[in-house]
User: What shape does this take?
Amino acid sequence: MDNKKTFWPIGIALFLIIMVCMIILTVYISIKYSPEDDNAYFSTRQIVDKDINDILLTQNQLEKEYKFYYIDSVGASHELERKVNKKTSIPIDINTNEPFILNIKITDNNGKNPDSAKVESIITRFAVSKFDKNLGELLKSDDIFKSNEVMLEKGEWKARIKITIDNKNAFFEQYIKVEE
Assistant: This one.
């Protein structure tokens, strides 16, 4: 008879215990450091997930009926984008010592400005939401929606813009680059 001791059962049990500990650690870390809501559609993630088809359908309808522009500091118009990309989007370049003012213009296909339009905006970093600057509702002056002045620190920012016309919403972003 062979009296060799086998350690396979201990190894398997040890492996299972380590795996259970790793799963518990992963759940703990994911709960403690959960990602922040990015508020891309000015709503919670659950509502956006549930209503994304209606949101995109409404967005497409408004984009067919209206044109949405950002007006730069020299008065030139630039079309707003749905989602900005650091590589392909053209940024608004400003210096850290100058205030930023967001200027939005909306026209229908005949060049007229809608009377019922309302514009809201949040300025945020690309990766983190904790530095958000809520501009609130922009004020209309001479058919241009203007934000209050805001000072931005050096870095890359984006303005998230919600435009409401006749209880329909469209969402856009504008890339902002702040340098010294």
Observations:
- The chain has a mean pLDDT of 87.
